[in-house]
Amino acid sequence: MVTQSIPTVDLSPFGHENGGDEAVKKRAIEEVGRACSEYGFFQVVNHGVPLGLLARALELSQLFFDYPLEEKLKASPIPGAPPSLGYTKQIEHLTDNNEYILMFTPESSFNVYPENPPEYREVLREMFPHFKKIALIVESIISQCLGLPPNFLRDYNNIRTWDVMAALHYTPATDGDDNVSGQSEHKDSNCISFVYQDDVGGLEVNKDGKWIPITPNEGTLVVNIGDVIQVLSNDKFKSATHRVVRPIGKSRNSYAFFYNVDGEKWVEPLPQFTEAVGEPPKYRGFFYKEYALLRLKNREEPPARKLSYASKF
Ligand SMILES: O=C(O)CCC(=O)C(=O)O
Ligand SMILES: [Fe+2]
């Protein structure tokens, strides 16, 4: 049996300030386009995020999450701060068994950092702008493979205050555990997500009803399309369903960067994928903050276009 895997794209030609081989770039853009319409997922190598930093960040996560709960709770979110920045452990009775630290851009005063290990705070702060940089590159590639100008999504989505980074930890499943879920199946509501996972594995993407495991590789970042791109592109690119399965006997650490749109942003299928090509919009428009709130409460899909005349279209 051939094991399916998601496509891997080399980003080295995009790292140059003044160019990079145009033909190689064009091929990479085509590959990303195929991956986004077939899988909603791909992997990138030569992404420019220093591998030493990623490795150190995973080590520090392991040290932090190994502390007693009491120590970890010292980094609890400030009550009322959006959206629970700092350390959170999923409530025991929930299906998903994970704990995490969330942070906004290092400039944000809402962030709550762990005091220990002492180096952790600086490493978390250092990681964020690297993810942001790679997100801008991938965003431009996605604009191009949607047939839009390279800066289209960047101009549409120019407020960076809703980007979120998560350091995630999954406790090991035990033999005979009837729940091995780390994160149950879901789609990401944001624009584009980036995941760096340790060598334990467990991230899986659903394609045509089958779960494809994403094999960890220390040089690789996983990229997936979120609901915002699915809606803007009127389903040209799909936000793929994925999940995390907890491996037996091994704890797992990962980092996720959720490249987002601002809460005040109005999101609806772009005319390029509707009027211009004679396709009806598949979604009605929404302010992103309303959708983000809805997704916090439940795991609904983007609001489908209602067929009644009373709807927006
Ligand atoms: O931990 C991972 O590998 C993926 C996390 C994820 O899918 C999410 O937080 O939305
Ligand atoms: Fe996700």
UniProtKB/TrEMBL annotation:
Transmembrane segments: none annotated. Residues 161-261 form the Fe2OG dioxygenase domain. GO terms for molecular function: metal ion binding; oxidoreductase activity, acting on paired donors, with incorporation or reduction of molecular oxygen. The keyword Iron applies. Keywords: Iron, Metal-binding, Oxidoreductase. Gene3D superfamilies: B-lactam Antibiotic, Isopenicillin N Synthase, Chain. Belongs to the iron/ascorbate-dependent oxidoreductase family. This is Fe2OG dioxygenase domain-containing protein.
